[in-house]
Write a structure and sequence with these properties.
This protein is globular. It has 9 helices and 6 strands; from the N terminus they run E-H-H-H-H-H-E-H-E-H-E-H-E-H-E. Helix 6 crosses helix 7 and helix 8 crosses helix 9. A 4-stranded parallel β-sheet has the order 2-3-4-5. Strands 1-6 form a two-stranded antiparallel ribbon. The chain is of the alpha/beta class and 233 residues long. The chain starts with a strand and ends with a strand.
């Protein structure tokens, strides 16, 4: 975030063929050295764990990816099928009407799309470039917040999604005009490293950082945050 704060499709191979090909490719890529062989021999538990535990899989993909969710290319092909060019604003409006409850659109990165989201009755937008992994040349969500807030602020919830790792990131986004922040890696890294305890620790650290930074800024309420807290570089 370029701002500082101042005070105040499925594979045609069988799953067995694909997994075998992937395993062989992995072996070719790996360079065995005396050191790595010694380390492997000194840790028989690794082999035992591999042989006795169920294979790693992505539960939300394993039923849909022919090659199994451990095959990177088949996962990518499946994800590609999720991008439906036939989806348009009329379809989004019908989904919102059929749902009848709070409705959020993710991936809004322009003022024009933010205004259209308001027009179809969406209650929130996620200003997001999907982690930068779909279109790596896209601007950062934080860079879009101010102009989107100027256009539709007060009429729809504006959620800054992406790049949020620290309490200061949250305060910067709120100061620019966002009404909330969200993050995936923010908790997923903690989940992978420490499970539920890790997530609780990460969220606790985030909360503590927000409180500490507000004290250092001389701010006692989120309502006091504004663009005068930011100095653009």
């Amino acid at each position: 975030m370029r701002a500082s704060m101042r005070s105040r499709s499925p594979s045609t191979r069988s799953s067995g063929e694909t997994a075998s090909a992937t395993s062989m490719a992995a072996l070719r890529r790996h360079r065995w050295t005396p050191r790595s062989l010694l380390s492997f021999a000194a840790h028989p538990r690794w082999t035992l764990n591999y042989l006795t535990r169920e294979r790693f899989s992505l539960a939300n993909l394993s039923d849909y990816v022919t090659g199994g969710s451990s095959v990177a290319m088949s996962v990518a092909q499946y994800i590609d099928t999720m991008f439906d060019p036939a989806m348009d604003w009329a379809a989004a409006e019908r989904i919102r009407a059929d749902w009848g409850g709070p409705f959020a659109l993710k991936g809004v990165m322009s003022v024009a799309d933010a205004r259209r989201a308001v027009e179809i009755g969406a209650t929130a937008i996620y200003v997001s470039n999907h982690g930068g992994r779909q279109l790596d040349g896209s601007r950062a969500p934080f860079d879009q917040i101010a102009e989107i807030a100027d256009a539709v602020g007060g009429r729809i919830e504006i959620i800054c999604d992406g790049g949020v790792r620290r309490g200061s990131h949250v305060l910067k986004a709120l100061s620019a005009g966002a009404t909330a922040c969200s993050g995936g890696r923010l908790y997923l890294y903690a989940l992978a490293a420490g499970g539920e305890t890790g997530v609780a620790r990460a969220l606790g650290n985030l909360c503590n950082e927000i409180v500490r930074d507000m004290k250092l800024m001389g701010v006692t309420s989120l309502s006091q945050l504004g663009r005068d807290n930011l100095r653009w570089r």
